[in-house]
Amino acid sequence: MNPALVLLALLASVAAQSQDHYDMGWVNGYRQGFNFQCPHGEVIVAIRSYFSENDGSDRLWSFECQPTPAGLGEPSDCWWDDINRAGMEWTSTCTRNGLVAGVQSKYFESTLDREWQFYCCFYKRRCPYSCMKTTDIPEYYREEGELVVPSYGYFIRGAQTTFSGVLRDRQWKYILCRMTDFDCEFDNL
Q1: How far apart are alpha carbons 80 and 120 in whole angstroms?
Q2: Where found in the cell (predicted)?
Q3: What residues does each domain of the chain span?
């Protein structure tokens, strides 16, 4: 095969890969706030982000939703939960045993970081169990990040996030839980 054609094909492949992040259905532009909510009765099951140092050390964000199982019923109440402060570590689990059904965020130039808030929904009095935290997402600061809930029946209940003031980026550990098939009377974090 002609070496020039091989090189041309390789360069075309690399160029296409470097532009992949433009077609991901991002909910924000760099340095812009956003408010994302799943349709009623659905929760977030996938999160993707793409970092750019040249665009304010910020990330583009994309979310995917999925209907909850019929046995969980319809959400009886939804609300915006705790908010963090830009540049600070943050741990948030939906209160009242809620599940994450949305996210809103505002960018702050002064810290090159964002404030975050989860939109949580309550499903009767179901209780979480078999909870776990994911590994760091992204694995290293400034990398592309992606979470896909690993199996049906697990739900995002919150997250723990750390901020690097040097690298101006966040890593996330998402809190995933299963939900009981019966009503319970207590908050179980």
Answers
A1: 6
A2: Secreted
A3: 34-179
